[in-house]
Amino acid sequence: MKKRFNIPALIMVTIVVSLFFNSCKDEKAKEETILKGTATILVDESFKPVIEDQITIFESKYDAKINMIAKSEGEVIQAFLNDTSAIAILSRTLTENEINNFKARKILPKITKIGKDAVAFIANRSSNDTLVALQDVISFMNGKKGRNIKGLVFDNPNSSSVRMINELSGLKDLPQENVFSFKTTEEVVKFVAENDGMIGVIGINWLYQPTAAGKDYVNKIKAISVKGLKGDAYIAPTQNNIAEETYPLARDLYIINCQGFSGLGMGFASFVAGDVGQRIILKSGLYPERTPGRKLIFKNKSQNDKENE
């Protein structure tokens, strides 16, 4: 006997299921406001330490819980597009195709610039090398022997550091010879600290804010000054040089919010871009998008103070 399907009944079930999921989404929007609720944020692992500080202070001020997932840039983008989280913090904006992906879901990404970071070259502290020319790094990436470069060590093949150096070198993938990669920045710092002659490529935030386990390794490495593709000066990756835009490997940081409603993504972005958040970035060794102001209080001497003089 053939089964007969009641078409109107199926349509009704579809409508009910659709309304159920939409109501769940609306319910989440009601439970979460810009300063209350729970949200997940995807973060480029290169600057995980400073974002951890931002989350800690934000949660201490508001009735909010932010779960941070730190991954390589490539993994963050993939998870972001797959709707693992609607909030991401990256060292680049979205491409046109990525923006169109969200527009197709009727979501217009809100992008907030929060400061400047930098890619740094590091070497073992016992190494005599304190300078490196960016052109030599590019030549080495393209298979030519570079002066004072025995090998390059990256944090992750999908990291933002790899993307930046690959773009400068005109490459899509990392070379196979004398170029190595790990999974995290901490592993790169440890490797360079234990192996003289190798140059590590990492986000500078880890030099200023190492983990408790990584502090001993950071003390055994040093940042190398870099000569850009223009000019002859070798510039150290310091906060001042990042601010003055003289360091050749500086990069902007962005919070990208694709929640589609007024949730914690909007509140957290406003917090980080505000006075307290910008002070946290300044203290971290990076450079904020907006320099926090300083208040000077002038007090007039009281009559009693004048009489006691």
Automatic annotation (TrEMBL):
InterPro entries: PBP_domain (IPR024370), Phosphate_ABC_transporter (IPR050811)
Annotated PBP domain residues: 36-275
Protein name per Swiss-Prot or TrEMBL: Substrate-binding domain-containing protein
Keyword Secreted recorded: no
Keyword Signal: yes
SUPFAM superfamilies given in the database record: Periplasmic binding protein-like II
Record's keyword terms, sorted: Signal
A Pfam family hit: PBP_like_2
Stretches assigned to coiled coil: none
